[in-house]
Amino acid sequence: xxxxxxxxxxxxxxxxxxxxxxxxxxxxxxxxxxxxxxxxxxxxxxxxxxxxxxxxxxxxxxxxxx
Length: 66
Ligand SMILES: [Cu+2]
Known about the structure:
Elements: E1 2-6, H1 12-25, E2 30-34, E3 39-43, H2 48-57, E4 62-65
Antiparallel strand pairs: 1-3, 1-4, 2-3
Helix pairs in contact: 1-2
The site of copper (II) ion has 4 residues, from helix 1.
């Protein structure tokens, strides 16, 4: 499980963009987003850095938690 704080993920559109970006690098990934806390939990076998890069490339600023 990878957990990211993404403070610039602020609405449903952002949520969809982040989810899409993660699934592009891991189609099996399970993405759980809490907009209220700007948190994305990603259940994936990929390296944390791979998921992080995908989110950055989508235009967001993730900070790793855990
Ligand atoms: Cu948005």
